[in-house]
């Protein structure tokens, strides 16, 4: 069995993971559809104790709501908001 056969699927997965960043993908979509407009991520809610915070972030484009995300960090909630926005656009 060749090294290429063994590692090729793993390399493909790594490349897919790097390309499939939902925040970047949504920003590229927005820039393609709207002239010089960027997504606006807004913190809607922050709850829970300091050691177990839960964040809710909404993403807007030109004051239109596109998605909502929840997460244990603001970064995770932002990623989930972008994922939600992309899911809504594709459906």
Can you tag this structure with a few keywords?
3 strands; single chain; flat; 91 residues; 3-stranded antiparallel β-sheet; alpha+beta
What does this structure look like?
This protein has helices at about 5-20, 20-35, 75-90, and strands at about 40-45, 55-60, 65-70. It is of the alpha+beta class. Helix 2 (about 20-35) crosses helix 3 (about 75-90). The chain is flat. About 20% of the residues are buried.
Write the layout of secondary structure elements.
Layout: H1 3-19, H2 22-33, E1 40-47, E2 54-61, E3 64-71, H3 74-90
Antiparallel strand pairs: 1-2, 2-3
Poorly predicted regions are none
Count helical runs: 3
Strand fraction: 25-35%
Query: Which class best fits the helix and strand makeup?
Result: alpha+beta
Number of strands: 3
Assign a percent range to the helix content.
Answer: 40-55%
- Anisotropy-based shape: flat
The biggest sheet amounts to: 3 strands, antiparallel
Radius of gyration: 17 Å
Give the distance, in angstroms, between the N- and C-terminal Cα atoms.
42 Å
What does the average pLDDT come to?
88
The sequence of SSEs as H and E is: HHEEEH
Strand order of the largest sheet: 1-2-3
């Amino acid at each position: 069995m060749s090294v290429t056969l063994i590692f090729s699927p793993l390399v493909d997965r790594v490349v897919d993971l790097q390309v499939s960043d939902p925040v970047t993908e949504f920003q590229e979509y927005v820039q393609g559809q709207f002239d010089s407009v960027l997504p606006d991520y807004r913190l809607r809610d922050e709850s829970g104790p300091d050691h177990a915070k839960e964040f809710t972030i909404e993403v807007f484009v030109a004051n239109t709501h596109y998605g909502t995300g929840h997460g244990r960090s603001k970064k995770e909630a932002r990623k989930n908001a972008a994922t939600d926005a992309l899911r809504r656009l594709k459906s």
